[in-house]
Specification:
Layout (H helix, E strand, L loop, with lengths): L1 H36 L5 E6 L4 E5 L2 E5 L2 E8 L7 H4 L14 H29 L1 E4 L6 E4 L4 H5 L6 E5 L2 E2 L10 H7 L5 E7 L2 E7 L19 E3 L5 E4 L4 H5 L6 E5 L2 E2 L6 H7 L4 E8 L2 E8 L14 E3 L2 E4 L3 H20 L13 H13 L3 H20 L7 H14 L5 H31 L5 H4 L2
Parallel strand pairs: 1-3
Antiparallel strand pairs: 1-4, 2-3, 5-18, 6-11, 7-8, 7-9, 9-10, 12-17, 13-14, 13-15, 15-16
Length: about 450
């Protein structure tokens, strides 16, 4: 119990450090650019809420807030932001005028610093590597009986080459995956191009959306298929059934009770038929072939799969170059925003994650083996996300400040202060409301998470 508590606290500390690093570096860009261009900087705050520490140095109040998420830089000459940053110490009309170019530089500095941090982290990932499944494939391993894909004729063993006319590289992760292309499709039928027995064939599948309650994120399209997953043991939870039975990370399951196993889904019928009994796993451990007896728990009234305490799928380290990582992250964000604004798309704002959801993802990442490597790779995506989304021409965001500065340059006079304050305050409140909206669903995922994919497939 003490070990688990310490582990929980350590992971929470890791999450807070890396999440806040991303925000602070972004704000540091604004701060340094403002000082360089001679703008008045009132505050540099790490975290929000009532300050638990503050000190004024060189006319700038440096503070540590009480809400451990993010931060801000108060630059009153850039835009009035009292709704978020508190009351300004200076009257705007008493401050010296600022050139539109200086406002653009200060606003753009945050995204530039975020992109710089993304590239720096991508360089580290390039050197240390990031885990990737040894069996990262688009080969179908599971087709739910009676589901849309089964009725259309998709079979286990089919290699999916394209979905909805778009080529795919992965099955589950990224916006170049089978899962995303199914979600992103807009027609009544989803065309699949598959390779079967050396021949390319086209299959058009229907789709379904599971029912969800009103307080959960809206369901997305699925055709009820799963990837072929190698029955390799990637990670064993301490004290689990697998751990007590003697299974180890790196083992490859080759048979169960003498039946050969080529895909993880091959194990399901054998396990289900022997609940409450002992089964013998044939495994390869390095150069050795071993037999490992595993006593299965009896079936429960609620049903559900056996929890072996195993993260299936052995991994290897890959070393993508920094430019590829940043480019892929940018493409993912463009595709997500395109899906959000497409009228026919099922992807809605509720499917995005807010600060709580992102920190939860970081927590889950740090719980896994090589979590720090995965966290670095994930941070490349988050930094590029932070940079590009902030460049959207929406007041309060950096892109909005740049747009207002461009308008000011064209008009050759500042925008009316009262109008600017009203627009900025309204948009700040809208942004806060949107964050609360996302947080509602983020908390819902924590309180009542979706059932595991293996359980839903039963």
């Amino acid at each position: 119990m003490v070990f688990d508590a310490l582990k929980f606290l350590f992971i929470c500390l890791e999450v807070l450090l890396i999440f806040n690093l991303l925000i602070v570096v972004h704000e540091l860009g604004h701060f340094l650019a403002a000082r360089w261009r001679g703008l008045v900087v009132e505050k540099f705050a790490i975290w929000f809420g009532k300050p638990i520490w503050s000190k004024t140095i060189g006319g700038v109040e440096y503070r540590l807030g009480s809400i451990p998420a993010g931060g801000f830089v108060a630059i009153p000459q850039l835009a009035p932001m009292e709704a978020v940053e508190g009351e300004s110490q200076h009257k705007r009309e008493e401050l010296p005028p600022v050139k539109p170019l200086d406002k653009m530089i200060v606003a753009a500095a945050g995204p530039i610093f975020s992109l710089g941090l993304a590239f720096a982290m991508a360089v580290i990932v390039w050197f240390v590597g990031k885990p990737q499944s040894e069996f990262d494939t688009t080969v179908v391993g599971f087709v739910r009986e009676g589901g849309p894909a089964a009725e259309a004729g998709l079979r286990p063993g089919d290699k999916i080459l394209a979905v909805d006319g778009q080529p795919v590289k992965h099955f589950l992760s990224g916006t170049d995956s089978v899962k995303w292309r199914v979600v992103r499709s807009e027609g009544e039928k989803i065309p699949f191009t598959v390779l079967r027995e050396g021949q390319e064939i086209r299959i058009e599948s229907g789709w379904t959306k599971p029912e969800t309650s009103s307080w959960r994120r809206p369901a997305l399209r699925e055709v009820q298929i799963g990837p072929r997953i190698s029955p390799g043991v990637g990670f064993v939870v301490r004290g689990s059934l697998a751990d007590k039975s003697g299974l180890r990370a790196g083992d490859l399951v080759t048979e169960v009770n003498g039946e050969p196993i080529f895909n993880l889904s091959d194990m399901g019928p054998i396990i289900d038929a022997n609940r409450g009994k002992e089964v013998v796993f044939g495994i390869e451990r390095g150069a050795e072939s071993l037999k490992v007896p595993v006593a299965l728990p009896p079936a429960t009234a609620e049903g559900g799969p056996v929890d072996f305490g195993i993260e299936w799928g052995r991994t290897k380290l890959v070393h993508p170059d920094p430019f590829t990582q940043v480019k892929d992250a940018a493409l993912s964000i463009f595709r997500m925003v395109d899906a959000l604004f497409s009228p026919q798309s099922d992807v809605k704002a509720a499917h995005f994650s807010g600060p709580v959801g992102i920190m939860r993802l970081y927590y889950q990442i740090f719980e896994s083996p090589d979590g720090w490597r995965i966290a670095l790779a994930f941070s490349v995506l988050i930094n590029v996300n932070l940079a590009l989304l902030n460049l959207l021409p929406f007041p309060v965001l950096d892109g909005g400040h740049i747009t207002l500065a461009v308008i000011e340059a064209i008009r050759r006079k500042p925008i009316n202060v009262r109008l600017l304050e009203a627009v900025q305050t309204a948009c700040a409140l809208l942004l806060i409301g949107f964050m609360l909206y996302l947080t509602f669903y983020d908390v819902g995922d924590i309180v009542a998470p979706n059932p595991p994919a293996a359980e839903k497939a039963k």
